[in-house]
Amino acid sequence: MVSSGRRHALFAGLVFNEEDEAAEAVYIGDEPHYVILDAGFRRHVESERVDRQVLQWLQEQFFANQEMITDGILTMLGKDDLFTKAMIDASMQNMDQLIQHGLPEDARTWLGMFGFRIIVDIHGDVIRTDLPAQEAPDEF
Q1: Is the dihedral of CA 44, 36, 57, 81 positive or negative?
Q2: Across the strands, what pairs with 24?
Q3: pTM
Q4: φ/ψ (deg, to 5) at 16
């Protein structure tokens, strides 16, 4: 997780090009970038461009399935109280804060182990998001 003011690529290790090649996360100055491989050429795309597209999509998915997702998280946590439910709902409504605070390394590892992958074109536009046991719609 980010402890200083320096931002990180939220989905480092989870971003791939259309040829299934992993995008490296690098810094240009203080700005994190994903390096999208393009036939031997290394295209640098600001990570925030990709990260915001994914966060917006995740929020849309959450709101479309809010009750089911919240219930699943509560079950996973072994809690079923209004305070925890309110915290989960508030967290999902404030996903943009992840841009500043970062995503814990363990969370990225967990997502990768379960098949979460972000496929982008050479410009950093998200083409699709692969989820565990299903593929997300191609609409962004």
Answers
A1: negative
A2: 35
A3: 0.75
A4: -135, 155
Residue predicted with more confidence, 64 or 6: 64
Residues counted in the chain:
140
Question: 91: closest CA among 114, 58, 113?
Answer: 58
Question: Quick one: tokens of 71?
Answer: 């219930």
Question: SS3 of 10, please?
Answer: coil
Q: In whole angstroms, what is the distance from residue 93 CA to residue 133 CA?
A: 25
Tell me which residue of 112, 121, 138, 132 sits closest to 12, measured CA to CA.
112
Between CA 76 and CA 70 the distance in angstroms is 10
Residue 57 host element (H or E): helix 47-64
DSSP state of 119: E
